[in-house]
Specification:
The chain has 3 domains: 3-155, Rossmann fold, CATH 3.40.50.720; 158-184 and 223-331, no CATH class; 360-446, Antifreeze-like/N-acetylneuraminic acid synthase C-terminal domain (Type Iii Antifreeze Protein Isoform Hplc 12), CATH 3.90.1210. α6 runs parallel beside α7 (129-146). Helix content is 36%, strand content 16%. The protein has helices spanning 3-12, 26-35, 51-60, 73-79, 88-93, 107-119, 129-146, 157-170, 196-200, 204-209, 214-221, 224-237, 256-259, 305-313, 339-348, 391-396, 432-444; strands at residues 17-22, 41-47, 83-85, 99-102, 123-126, 150-152, 174-182, 274-279, 296-301, 324-329, 360-366, 375-377, 384-390, 406-409.
């Protein structure tokens, strides 16, 4: 609880943490809005494929023109200003950079940028959870070998869940379940960018005027983003998915301890130590009372009768046995909170969550019948959605990760609801992203997660 003081010391000594952002989308822009408020932090550069759009975003959130006028990274260092350009590699290679933030959301780009950052001895904060779930366990291992920090992004739900899990374990409490809330109905798995706005109560024109990307928003609705984020949580904490994936039980905050306990005790869990997402909607579409749509939670168990009595004495909401209780946070502020990762990584050399093994995977599942020759369009698209699986189940079935299900052709007929495999598609085996993924599978195939440290 001293990050702010340490940042102030950096500011006073004129030794700021120099930070570079790759990808100035919504998450990145929200971080930029707060970065200029943080003492001891210098935004060295912003790399984006549309630098003019990135510059406009900076101006819109309050950066004066002179602050973002640096013509080179060297000038940005000398004058304490910010460079904006297309060349992410130049930013990652610059000697003054301390921390790189990867926020493109594109698995292939995130993988390449992370390897570059590690090769140049830079800490890397991976906002790009899509890349983290595809190859993050291998990236984190490479970072540790290189003596730099690989970190999940605080403000995004996986890092916040990992923090709650760490809190419970540090208190000596066994974690029974952890996860987040979302808006979910089974029919959403077949939602497409053409149908997504009706589920959000918007017209296509309203969404267009708001600059909303239908495929991105659909990935939140069709279950893909939940699968990706819970795989990241499993890989970072040592918790694990249930066989077959998420069940999305309807559940409000007052019922977390009752619903998210083992099935043998009246709950829905397959096992203790499970990741799960709760729905803010009942299966008939009615809103859940006191839902957790925007929040995160951890369910924990009293280890003794004495602790169980303490739960009661201090007003914890428990299940009927009084044995299980929960802690939850109703909101997350995504990029506005990313400064916690920057400060933790830069000042303490500590991540805000990172993969410690390969335990969960997000795999491509068909939204409809697919014919040979059709092209998959990836996360949030028309063809597939991402289902959470235990890593060993994914590996055993040669499941196609959702992060590779972009711009590749189906080679044989697939029924609606089937999990796609490597044998069902024509993967470009020469692509770096594919090769790194296969290396990760080989590296962790024989690893025992119980032997790896948990976050």
């Amino acid at each position: 609880m001293n990050l702010h003081r340490l940042l102030q010391e950096r500011a006073t000594s004129d030794k700021p943490l120099r930070v570079g952002l790759i990808g100035a989308g919504k998450f990145g822009t929200m971080f930029l809005a707060q970065a200029r408020q943080m003492p001891g932090v210098h935004l060295l550069g912003v790399a984006d494929l549309a630098p003019e759009r990135a510059s406009e975003s900076l101006r819109r959130i309050g950066y004066p023109a002179e602050q973002i006028a640096a013509r080179s990274l060297g000038e940005a260092v000398d004058k304490g200003t910010t460079w904006v350009g297309e060349d992410a590699s130049a930013l990652l290679a610059h000697s003054a950079l301390d921390i790189a933030i990867e926020a493109t959301g594109i698995p292939a780009a995130g993988t390449a940028h992370a390897f570059e950052a590690i090769a140049h001895g830079k800490h890397i904060i991976m906002v790009n959870v899509e890349a983290d779930v595809l190859v993050g366990p291998l990236l984190a291992r490479r970072a540790r070998e290189a003596g730099v920090v690989y970190s999940l992004a605080y403000g995004d739900q996986p890092a916040l869940i990992a923090e709650q899990v760490d809190w419970a374990r540090a208190c000596g409490l066994e974690v029974i379940a952890a996860g987040k809330g979302t808006k979910y109905l089974p029919a959403y798995h077949t939602s497409t960018p053409e149908t997504v706005w009706e589920h959000y109560g918007l017209t296509s024109e309203e969404a267009r005027q708001g600059g909303m990307n239908p495929q991105m928003f659909n990935s939140f609705l069709d279950g893909t983003k939940s699968a990706i984020e819970m795989a990241a949580v499993a890989n970072a904490t040592g918790l694990s998915p249930a066989p077959g994936g998420l069940s999305f039980p309807p559940c409000g905050v007052d019922d977390l301890a009752s619903v998210l306990r083992p099935a043998a005790e009246g709950g829905i869990l397959h096992h203790k130590g499970q990741v799960e997402v709760v729905s803010s909607l009942e299966r008939d579409g009615r809103p859940v009372f006191r839902d957790l749509r925007w929040g995160v939670y951890v369910v924990f168990e009293a280890p003794t009768d004495y602790v169980q009595r303490c739960f009661a004495e201090y007003g914890l909401v428990t299940d009927s046995s009084g044995h299980y209780s929960a802690l939850y946070r109703p909101y997350h502020l995504i990029g506005l909170e990313l400064g916690i990762s920057v400060a933790s990584v830069g000042l303490r050399n500590e991540s805000t969550g990172q993969p410690t093994g390969w335990r969960g995977d997000a795999v491509a599942t068909s939204k409809r019948d697919l014919k040979p020759g059709e092209t998959l369009d990836g996360e949030g698209g028309f063809t597939v959605w991402g289902r959470l699986l235990p890593a060993e189940e994914s590996l055993r079935g040669s499941a196609l990760p959702i992060g590779l299900a972009h711009h590749i052709q189906v080679t044989r007929a697939i029924r609606a609801g089937d999990i796609l495999t490597y044998h069902d598609v024509a993967v470009d085996e020469s692509s770096e992203c594919f090769r790194v993924r296969r290396e990760m599978e080989r590296t962790f195939a024989d690893a025992n997660p119980a032997d790896l440290p948990a976050a």
